[in-house]
Amino acid sequence: MKEVRSFIKTASLAELEKAQQLIGDAISKYTQQQKAKQEVLELLKEKGLTLEDLQDAASDKRTKVKPKYRMELNGETIEWTGRGRRPKAFEGVELEKFLA
């Protein structure tokens, strides 16, 4: 607010009128956005949805890749898609033997 007061003291009439117009536009845009948000929330409520319902669908766009290789080691199943770094369990082995 200090900056605003300082601007008001030093600004010309034209600058003050321009600032008034910009502030009026910002207030109008803000109220329109708030009204739109309220309308969307009311529509969600009417349809029985929550914001979380919408967020879950768009949260992770990555596709799951099926494992290409699988092996049993010490009673544990180790899988690898063939992407990224090779797991230690698959180092030094012939991968064709462990195709899933």
Automatic annotation (TrEMBL):
It comes from the Bacteria. Gene3D superfamilies: Histone-like protein H-NS, C-terminal domain. It comes from Pseudoalteromonas fuliginea. The lineage of its organism: Bacteria, Pseudomonadati, Pseudomonadota, Gammaproteobacteria, Alteromonadales. Coiled coil: none annotated. Residues 59-100 form the DNA-binding protein H-NS-like C-terminal domain. This is H-NS histone family protein. InterPro entries: H-NS_C_dom, H-NS_C_dom_sf.
